[in-house]
Amino acid sequence: MFVSENLAVNGQGHLTIGGADTVELARQYGTPLYVMDEQLIRTNLRRFRDSMQKYYDGKGYVHYAGKAFTCLEMCRVVASEGVGLDAVSIGELYTAVKAGFPMEEVGFHGNNKTDEELRYAIEVGVGHIIVDNLSELRRLEKIAAELIACPNIMFRIKPGIDAHTHQFIMTGQIDSKFGFALETGEAFDAVKEALSCENVRLIGLHCHIGSQIFDIEPFEAAAKVMLELMAKIKNELGYEISALNLGGGFGIKYLNEHDPAPFEVYAERVSAVVKEKCSDLGLTMPDVYIEPGRAIAAPAGITLYTVGARKEIPGIRTYVSVDGGMADDPRYILYQSEYEAVVANKAGEERSERVTIAGKCCESGDLIGEDMPLQHAESGDILAVLATGAYNYSMSSNYNRLQKPAVVFVNEGESRVVVNRQSLDDLISNDV
Ligand code: LLP
To answer: What is the pTM of this model?
Structure first.
């Protein structure tokens, strides 16, 4: 009935998440409110972890992409499931350090890392740094020498796969700010340079072909291209790369009509391609990493709002306004992302009308969605927007000086705050 398996309707006709009554949560913690089901986060982490281990014969690893959603407690949960972390800034690294995350299980990303970030990554002992470009390689080599260190690195490669066209195609692909181009020889030359460096150790190649991808073929194609590059490096430079990182991007069910393949199917199919290709090319099977973010966090989260104004414009549309909007969920204004929504206190009723859900920011485009099927919503109702666990809290802002909502974890009916709602004083805390 709902997009996520952890949502249900209780005897009072209220929406529940992870066994907790959402109307009660809204009353207890206030709105807007992000609610995440800890058990579903854990289930998702385990599914990825176990399938990677299974299909890559003990050589498959998961680094959760913290950009989807992170905070101290999320780092603790990820670590406790034996899953690593993909971090993209000194802020994400710092959060992991403060959470006591095992830093050797962290991969550090970014297309424009600062010297400060590179130094910090080495100092806190990240497992590997995914180097994006030559200037970074050279700066890293210098910083590592100063620190008398030799960090493991991977290279981010543009594999030339565009996963976002319906029929995926091999593109020119030079037009991306991320990584080394394959077809110009840039990637191969960079590998040669890295092999001559004394203070970095090249262990892997990385690619990430996009996000919210439903098809498995582009992932298979990317794996093939990457293994071919590994074979070229082995044959021409006599160096065998030991790790292959295939990035994230696994699509999730935002709308009832979405039907993403279960991750196990992805792992089975892509691992078969990797094994076959390794044997064809005479390569030892590398350690294989993936970096799912959305697929772990999004289905586990919902956002609760209180409905305020209702505006019916005859013959045009009905606006239902809520007490949040683009500041806590900028995905509609950025990408016209679609969600399912439910009036949480009327969740047992039919969704009898179609409305535009509007936020409270001073901006016409501040919408949660248009033409959304919904129960008849009136002022004071609680609105739940589903599958908001990824890229909502993490991309939230203080636009219009709105306070960022709290994040609450529920676990088998119990709830606890893991990120406090910002106070009014928080809003002025950096003002001088
Ligand atoms: N690895 C790398 C190198 C990435 O750039 C990303 C996402 C991931 C892993 C995780 O991808 P996922 O499994 O979550 O699809 N803000 C956008 C999504 C941006 C994704 C950026 N990179 C959104 O709200 O849809």
So the answer is: 0.97
